[in-house]
Amino acid sequence: MQIEKKDIRALSKDQLREFFVSNGDKAFRGNQVYEWLWSKGAHNFDDMTNVAKTTRQMLEENFVINHIRVDQMQKSEDGTVKNAVRLHDGLVVESVLIPTNTRTTACVSSQVGCSLDCNFCATARLKRMRNLNPDEIYDQVLAIDNESKLYHNRPLSNIVFMGMGEPLMNYNNVIKAIDKIVSPEGLGMSPKRITVSTSGIPKMIKKLADDEVKFRLAVSLHSAIDEIRSRIMPFSQNFPLSDLRESLEYWYNKTRSKITYEYVVWKGINDNKASVDALVKFCKYVPCKVNLIEYNPIDDGEFQQASEESINEYIKALEKNDIVVKVRRSRGKDIDAACGQLANKEA
Question: Where is the active site (predicted)?
Fold first, then answer.
């Protein structure tokens, strides 16, 4: 009977060392293989050139490397790159490289599809198939780091968990992936250059604070009025703004780290004075900054970009109250790589 091979990247370094010792080899061999798997991103055992051929054969007999494959890569006229990433079981997610003059940012996915039901987001229309494993998240980052070096002659500078899926609904795997990304044995990236974006799940935000994470937190807010927010993001009926506020206060008291609010202004939905005033009030609870995000339509007419005049009303009110605000113009719209557009159209 053929044994089912285990994904080798599910093993810790200590477990790898134990495997080699139990097979009559030296423990340090586990260190070598671990380095190949993570910091060198080996796709198969034959890549491990400083490991004896007999040892590589033993690994091949016992394990697999469930590596992602970039199935399709699209380049936008603005330099943005979108990857359609094929997973080992055939499912597809998307990730994006976003370049500016000063940085290159990876936007990565955490789920195949999404657990939530935000009406304005293409990904939310996909059924959640499964959570991504830590190595699948890590591989997206590694692929984009390589693309950044290839196309922009510099390594990746920032990572945002703003791709497909709700990161806090895949909590353990996202945390493990970030641990690998910041580890000197992984990519050695500073956690301050990583932002995890959530639609706002109070219990999990508190857990982040209790776990003393060092990365940044962003919240997709879009309205500080419960009735409007529930229309935009129906799942938020279970997480009223009072609960979200309490969790964010808890986060700040524990971490002393500012929140970023992601906020899209839509015509006829939240482009009114009551919405502006409610956001200003909400921003005063916890030190924060606001990113006003350009909306990217997803085929139907319910959600439409608000006028520049409406967006300027938000900017004036926020700045008047000493709240940092930036307008984020979308990148990669011509290849459906902009915020809210990731939907596996090629899968």
Answer: 94 (proton acceptor), 339 (s-methylcysteine intermediate)
